[in-house]
Design goal:
One of its GO terms (molecular function) is hydrolase activity. InterPro entries: ATP_synth_B-like_membr_sf, ATPase_A1A0-cplx_hsu. Its EC number is 3.6.3.14. There is one protein chain. This protein has 103 residues and is mostly helical. The protein has one helix at residues 2-100.
């Protein structure tokens, strides 16, 4: 009978040790999972930041290209108007001279 009691006590002790080891393993798993989640979060944030910077740079470049195109188009229009104004002025002078000469 005493042998049975010793085996029961030993079995309970082993069960408690297993429970403690399981608790420690569970804590380690949770700790590792938290660390891994933090690493993943940091990687995602870094990737999102890089992508945001890339999008901002792309938008800036597109905006600068559009501004340059608009400026160039405006300069062409100004040159065209200047040319037309010169032509109209020359035509007006020629007609004025013609009128003065009696034509």
């Amino acid at each position: 009978m005493e042998d049975v009691i010793k085996r029961i006590v030993e079995a309970e002790r082993e069960a408690e040790e297993r429970i403690e080891r399981a608790k420690e393993e569970a804590k380690a798993i949770v700790r590792n999972a938290k660390e891994e989640a933090k690493t993943i979060e940091e990687e995602i944030l870094a990737k999102a930041q890089a992508e945001a910077e890339s999008l901002v740079q792309k938008a800036r470049e597109e905006g600068e290209a559009e501004a340059k195109r608009i400026i160039e188009e405006g300069e062409r229009e100004i040159e065209s108007l200047r040319s037309k104004a010169e032509t109209n002025f020359e035509t007006a002078i020629a007609r004025a001279i013609e009128l003065v000469r009696g034509g």
